Amino acid sequence: MHNYNPWDPEIYTAPSADAENMGVNQMIVDAMRTGKPWHEMGAQELRDFLASGNSPMGAPVFSEKAVDRTIPCPAGPLTLRTFMPEKVDGVYLHIHGGGWVIGRSDGQDPLLESIARNCNLAVVSVEYRLAPEHPYPAGPDDCEAVAVWLTQNARREFGSERIFIGGESAGGHLSAVTILRMRDKHHYTGFAGANLVFGVFDLGMSPSAANWGDEPLIINTPVMRWFIEHFGVSDRARSPEISPLYADLSGLPPALFTVGTRDPLRDDTLFMYARWIAGGNKAELAVYPGGAHGFTAFPTQMGAAARARCEAFLRG
Q1: Of 219, 246, 257, 279, which has fewest CB within 10 angstroms of its CB?
Q2: Within a domain: residue 4?
Q3: Which residues are catalytic?
Q4: What value does the mean pLDDT of the chain take?
Q5: Which residues pair with 257 in a beta bridge?
């Protein structure tokens, strides 16, 4: 397993990244430059494009071990995509990414199946409502509702009250928001851990996101602005209830923060890790040189190393 020192300045420079990873990054940039920019598409147009399998993300792979179920929630029934291991040591509440606009709970089946199998966790992924059809606070409300349901039903439904939470990109943001809502609105501080993977924690845009420019390495500055505008929070982006970087971060669970150095959201993770620690909470920081946004899903040694570290954290 790769063990990079996040305090070593050399890992933040391009020459420190391995050739395999840099090659994948360049293929992504080249492919995305040949197509219509994401931020010039409509929301449904982008969803359809990604579902077609013609994007650099490839086609989704669906697992036969996944089981969809529906639970009642205040805004209406919600779908949960679940994976059950043979032995259950806990539950992982997973929240998918996609800028609050794209993405589905069935879009990362191989990752979630692996977590269920290797960590002995029942995995529950939330099919929350997407913007712009359902702008803020619809998505966060759905994630909160599922977290409340789990605190009341996890032992009966899955065999354990030990609950982890986590997600990637916008899923990292929604995970942090859910943790804070559960603490502040429901007096629940029992999460066993938070697996926060290249999350968005400053919707006013951190320096790395704001200064990235238009290089299309999955996301870029125009795409992030497009996502935030569709989410419906541009006029209040740095309110603590919207951007968890600005919230009171005391009394939170242990967290693993994962990010690559070639990610526009790099600073979101670095800043949030520092604030998590300053709030008196335990945290680990895993920084991967040259890792792009979404690199944990790439078929590279670095992607495999990051997935393995996340699984080690969830087993802990």
Answers
A1: 279
A2: no
A3: 169, 263, 293
A4: 96
A5: 196, 285
